[in-house]
Write a structure and sequence with these properties.
The complex is a heterodimer of chains A (477) and B (106). Chain A is built from 17 helices and 16 strands. With 477 residues, chain A is α/β, with parallel strands linked by helices. Among the domains of chain A are: 68 residues, no CATH class; 190 residues, no CATH class; 38 residues, no CATH class. The C terminus of chain A is likely disordered. In chain B, 30% of the residues lie in helices and 20% in strands. The chains are: A alpha/beta (477), B alpha/beta (106).
């Protein structure tokens, strides 16, 4: 049984599985309409007009005619490499009307542009990179290096960005899963390639200024749309959608200004290895002010209480000044110290936890079957406080920002995967074509004391280029 | 005099298809045999975890008890999240049940 909103979706899903399942549909949605459930049950299937229970009994008892309900095996037809030639205007319209873009105009993937993109890797165009679907069970589409290049061109990327985009594609992880709940995404790049391709890890790293951050993040979503078969209302069912998916919070970590080890090193990669990491969740809370009256850890604990604590997951995206303050003023020598403190000190009531619908949906069966810790939590009095972030290793920290203010973002994102970029590099390095403007040096007065002039190394790489910033320009922002 | 519009329209471009390649062959699977009627049979009502589904199946259990009293129902929640397999439960249903209703997707 399903609600009537998913008729087409389930029909396709069943076909993909080779099953002519018998569905009966209820009005949509059931969730939140508890007072009407009996009325729904005794009413009609909105798709057939037939009484629901009559449909259920029929589906259970009507004999199965094997020959009639079985379809022959049908191989899916392969798509031609080239589209029909047309004018630029018509092709732009075609791409948008076919749902092959993120709604914005794209760079049309001509053969010349795709060939230029392919200079960005040593791998052959016909090498299979992976398979993807945005759904859980529908057929995955296969894609080659060339298919990824096509989508990279469309995003506005250059060949210097291509190794990062290929590493993303290799993960087979869609930026926009089908879910009605509209996931938020984040992707973070570590290692030398950040600077080689001009990524921003400093001032405004998460705002729309930097070419590399913008096009790499956008490419992930175009890959998802075209290689993961994302079609709005058909395979993508996010009720509201999520505008993080325009570039998926694509940024680089400000490793040079972080007081802690880089994220990729923490995950087992070498410091000199270039790595892309992807995150998934729903919620991002921007800290509204500096941690003055309370430490950032205490403020974060307040924010985290609003999360479902699913998988014990949270990721803090913090300005280098926040990390420095936590280490030097509050004694969190390592990330591990901080994640254990949060795991222990973020507490909510049992009622809040179990009234969170997703916790009930995912874990109530485990609780009923004695699986810990859910069984213990299920037995708690409703008002009893407990610490639901029981797996501190799932609380992550990424240092991003330009030190204009000690602020941070508390998210419920969990770290999904990390992948090495280096295997996708070309034999000869391709320099970044575009040099992004360098912020004035004075705003890089990173610890607030401004006792010594910042050097290019100590200033971090606010614009990604790591050139010595011009001195004496601008002032405190 | 050429306008911007007719200049862009006059240039014909050849571009590549951005979509991934289907690879699958759909192998047809058969549905299980159906009982002739539900009289005296055991039906599993399996909540898969979407909000409101368990409560809806509770109503269905009550409806069957009232309207089809010879039918035995087993209302249960599928272990794990809705997207994961549950082979132990499937085995139990095959062993002890005559029919199953999964729901409610939404």
């Amino acid at each position: 049984m399903a609600t009537g909103r998913f008729v087409d979706y389930l029909e396709r899903d069943a076909q993909n599985q080779g099953l002519a399942l018998r569905f009966t549909f209820t009005p949509h949605p059931l969730v939140g309409n508890y007072f009407f459930l009996r009325q729904y049950l005794e009413g009609n299937d909105p798709t057939t007009g037939r009484p629901i229970m009559e449909g259920v009994i029929d589906a259970l008892t009507r004999p199965v005619p094997p020959a009639a309900e079985r379809k022959p095996e049908v191989p899916k037809p392969r798509r031609a490499r080239l589209l029909e030639p047309d004018s630029e205007e018509n092709l732009q319209r075609l791409f948008i009307e076919n749902g092959w873009t993120d709604g914005l105009p794209i760079v049309l993937p001509t053969e010349e542009r795709v060939a230029d993109m392919l200079r960005g890797t040593s791998h052959p165009p016909d090498e299979v990179v992976g398979r993807m679907t945005i759904t859980t069970l529908q057929e995955k589409l296969e894609y080659t290096v060339e298919k990824v290049a096509i989508n990279a061109v469309m995003a506005g990327a250059g060949p210097e960005h291509f190794p990062v985009i290929l590493a993303l594609a290799e993960m087979e992880e869609p930026s926009m899963p089908s879910s009605t709940t509209s996931f938020a995404r984040m992707m973070v790049v570590n290692g030398p390639i950040r600077h080689e391709i001009g990524m921003n890890c400093g001032v405004g790293a998460l705002s729309p200024f930097n070419l590399a951050n913008a096009v790499i993040g956008r490419a992930w979503t175009l890959i998802t749309i075209n290689l993961g078969d994302s079609r709005v209302g058909e395979t993508f069912m996010g009720s509201q959608g999520n505008n993080t998916n325009y570039n998926n919070m694509c940024c680089a970590e400000n490793e040079e200004r972080s007081v802690w080890e880089p994220f990729h090193v923490e995950k087992g990669f070498r410091a000199d290895e270039s790595v892309v990491s992807v995150f998934r969740g729903w919620s991002v809370i921007n800290s509204m002010g500096a941690p003055n009256q309370r430490g950032a850890h205490e403020e974060t604990a307040i924010f985290m209480k609003s999360f479902a604590a699913l998988r014990s997951s949270a990721t803090l995206v913090m300005d280098p000044l926040v990390a420095k303050g936590l280490k030097e003023n509050h004694g969190f020598k390592t990330k591990s110290d901080l994640r254990h403190w949060l795991s222990k000190n973020v507490k909510i009531t049992a009622k809040q936890y179990w009234d969170t619908d997703i916790n009930r949906a995912f874990f109530i069966t485990e609780a009923e079957h004695g699986v810990e810790p859910f069984a213990t939590w299920w037995k708690l009095p409703p008002d009893e406080l407990f610490a639901p972030f029981v797996e501190p290793e799932n609380i992550n920290f990424v240092v991003v920002g330009g030190e204009t203010n000690p602020l941070w973002q508390t998210t419920d994102l969990w770290h999904v995967k990390s992948a090495s970029i280096d295997k996708w590099r070309p034999r000869k390095p391709i320099p970044a074509k575009v040099r992004m403007p360098v912020p004035p040096v004075d705003i890089l007065c990173s610890d607030g004391t401004c006792e010594e002039p910042a050097t290019s190394a100590s200033a971090g790489c606010s614009d990604g280029s790591c050139e010595s910033p011009p001195k004496g320009k601008g002032g405190p922002q | 005099m050429a306008t911007v519009q007719n200049l862009t329209e006059s240039r014909v471009l050849t571009v590549l298809d951005p979509r991934g390649q289907p690879t699958g062959t759909i192998k047809s699977l058969s549905l299980g045999p159906r009982p002739r009627s539900l009289e005296g049979k055991t039906i599993y009502l399996v909540d898969i975890g979407f909000g409101g589904g368990f409560e809806f199946l509770q109503e269905m259990k009550a409806w069957l008890a009232q309207r089809m009293p010879s039918v035995r129902t087993v209302l249960t929640r599928k272990p794990g999240i809705m997207f994961l397999d549950a082979p132990d439960l499937w085995a139990e249903i095959k062993d002890k049940g005559h029919a199953v209703i999964f729901g409610v997707g939404g």
